[in-house]
Write a structure and sequence with these properties.
Layout lengths: L1 H5 L6 H15 L1 H39 L3 H51 L10 H38 L1 H16 L1 H16 L1 H42 L5 H11 L5 H15 L3 H27 L7 H44 L1
Length: about 375
């Protein structure tokens, strides 16, 4: 009888153990964070491999279906194309990008001096402001503002250069990930079968099927949106480079890369790229800056009305209001990455909620 009374208390034991472990983790959060960073650094080649395989999988399937060739030959063709693009980027685009950034950093003091001179020469024009205190405040603080802006711009460019250098230092991990991704794509059916077996073992047949079905919907939303956006933004970046080169714009490579990257962000991205492009060129030539803004604006209209819908279609099925909500909230919570992935994430939540509502309605 005593044993039967003690046995129920054993149910509390896992909760006690989990509570103790949770307390230890919270109490040593710095150590946990450091260990987590080391762990992520160790598995980063596999994370790269998964990302590369996920991105290249549609291309491999396309070559298999379109030209009726086997998996190995499809992989060879796709990886040769990828290596060619990377070689072109590293050999031609990257040096020009560094030259653009270096030129801006070197010329920042000159830009600040020219702007200060312009403000001092035209300070008399501030006399139209009737409030003398406001006029004096503007005269005394405009120069300080320009200097601070120049320092901030220089600091931001230095951060960008540091980020590029850090990325370059991780290039070796990317190469390892590239090799591992080929094996992932070669044996993807075996990997998927193993994952399904594990899901069935943990969740059972019925719930496992539901989970796999939901996973397929998530994969469809993310793959079409992310890959479509990458292709769309790459085309816009190349077109921007061609057009800016035709009008002989300074920093054409840097501006085109900024426009291509910011184009990944729905609605707000094109305006961010346009503003950055104008700011970068305005110190060299206000007239050129005007034409740069016009070119980018026309290019973004072409993307919004024709190219984007042609490539992307309507994968996420969200209204403009929900897309703006996803970008704003995602950006507020997770920064740039949240702005990029907020739309497909909200689309996944919408799909999940709709499935739950449909099941509830069926039961009722």
């Amino acid at each position: 009888m005593k044993e039967n009374k003690k046995i129920p208390y054993l149910r509390v034991l896992p909760i006690i153990i989990i509570s103790i472990l949770a307390y230890k983790l919270i109490d040593n959060i710095d150590g946990v964070t450091k260990s987590l960073k080391i762990f992520i650094s160790l598995i980063s080649p596999f994370l790269w491999a998964f990302g590369i395989a996920y991105f290249l999988n549609p291309q491999v399937k396309y070559f298999e279906r379109r030209f009726k060739i086997n998996r190995r030959l499809s992989l060879v063709i796709v990886y040769l194309i990828l290596i060619g693009v990377l070689s072109f980027t590293i050999g031609i685009v990257t040096p020009k990008l560094f030259d653009n950034v270096k030129q801006i950093v070197v010329d920042i003091p000159k830009y600040v001096s020219v702007t200060e001179k312009f403000l001092n020469d035209n300070s008399e024009k501030l006399s139209f402001i009737e409030n003398q205190e406001v006029s004096n405040y503007l005269r005394t603080n405009l120069t300080e503002f320009v200097q601070k802006f120049g320092n901030r711009l220089e600091s931001g460019l230095n951060v960008a250069i540091t980020t590029v250098i850090n990325f370059t230092s991780g290039f070796f991990k990317f190469i390892i990930g590239l090799l591992i991704s080929s094996y992932m794509l070669l044996d993807k059916e075996k990997i998927i079968t193993s994952l399904k077996r594990g899901i069935y073992a943990m969740l059972g047949r019925e719930k496992g099927e539901q989970f796999i079905q939901f996973g397929s919907e998530v994969d469809l939303i993310f793959s079409k949106y992310i890959i479509g956006k990458c292709i769309d933004s790459a085309i816009i970046g190349v077109l921007c480079l061609v057009l800016l080169t035709l009008i002989n714009s300074p920093f054409a490579v840097l501006i085109s890369i900024i426009v291509g990257i910011t184009n990944m962000i729905p609605y707000f991205g094109p305006f961010i790229g346009m503003i950055f492009g104008g700011i970068i060129v305005i110190f060299v030539s206000p007239v050129k800056a005007f034409w740069v803004v016009i070119v980018i604006f026309i290019l973004q209209q072409f993307d919004g009305w024709y190219l984007g819908p042609k490539i992307l279609g309507d994968q996420v099925g969200l209204s403009p209001l929900w897309i703006i909500f996803a970008v704003v909230v995602g950006g507020g919570l997770f920064g740039v990455m949240g702005m990029l992935l907020g739309v497909p994430f909200v689309a996944v939540i919408r799909t999940l909620v709709e499935d739950i509502i449909d099941k509830k309605l069926e039961k009722n």
